[in-house]
Amino acid sequence: MKVLSLTEPYATLIKEKKKLIETRSWKTNYRGELYIHASMTPISKTTKEDNKLFSLINDSKLNFGHIICKCNLVDCIYMTKEYVENMKRNNYLEYICGGYEVGRYAWVLENIEPIKPIKAKGQLNIWDYYNEFEVMSLMDNIEYGWMDNEGNKHKIIDNSYSDNYILQSPKEIIKNKVGVCWDQVELERYYFKGNIWNIRTYFIVHYDNDKYPTHTFLTFEKNNKYYWFEHSWEKLKGIHEYSSLEDLLIDVRNKFIKYELNNNYNKNNLCIYYYKKPNFHINALDFYKHCESGINILLEKK
């Protein structure tokens, strides 16, 4: 869903249908459904002292850091001198809710509906918000496979992989519709970026001579529960819930041992690393190094 972040009290004024036009310095060609997000930005001193503006809110609760309503963006109008003067003269209450100056744009909103507030991070411009089920649906557009450093698509992991693999950016994965778990986790990270669910990514590897089987996966925390979000591992595809992060990591480790290592492993050679977002277009060796530079997770339970 497309989202627009506003500072308070302007987001709430839209939710309360007191403000039907959002004013911006830039034009948008987007038309359609739009979430309105109240950002975490504190109310400015000038706005706080605007008694006329705050009189429109009455006792409405402000919801900093939440998506609070949905609407339809139906038009984007360039403000001429005549437009600004007409707004000030004939729609003064709307006029005081925005920045009306020649050269700016009026985004016209219709069908405003309050929703149950959703915690979310704000972003600049129009951005996307997806819940976990929407992300899984989007990920279903991606097949398992990889792109080499010459832009060729491969469906099978073969001997050329280690020398020719290149980590794609999220936009490249969407375009190419293919990616191994390393790529897919970065696309998942991209889709989840509007959430505040403590997104974490992990790299599990078993060091076995020249064969280093690996898997990357994404987790998030929501409502005091922990979730393993899995798309690329077809056998275990789904959103798996746990009461603790340790339980989650232990379960992933045990399933990796069972299904990927066929229970044939050396526990001293099995590692799980928490890693942060890597640079795109790195090769397989550099991806290993990046993940190994993260935090090595030591699990106590067997």
Total beta strand runs: 14
Cα separation of the termini: 42 Å
Q: Provide the CATH topology of the largest domain.
A: C8orf32 fold
Total domain modules: 2
Please bin the fraction of helical residues.
Answer: 25-40%
The number of helical segments is: 11
| Spatial strand sequence of the major β-sheet | 2-5-4-3-1-6
CATH architecture of the largest domain: Roll
Largest sheet geometry? 6 strands, mixed
Average pLDDT rating = 94
Q: Given the C-alpha coordinates, what overall shape results? A: elongated
Report the top-level CATH class of the largest domain.
Answer: Alpha Beta
Q: Which residue ranges are poorly predicted, with pLDDT under 50 across at least 5 consecutive positions?
A: none
Along the chain, the helix and strand elements come as: EHEEHHEHHEEHEEHHHEEEEHEHE
Using the CA coordinates, give the radius of gyration: 24 Å
| Strand residues, percent | 25-35%
Structural class: alpha+beta
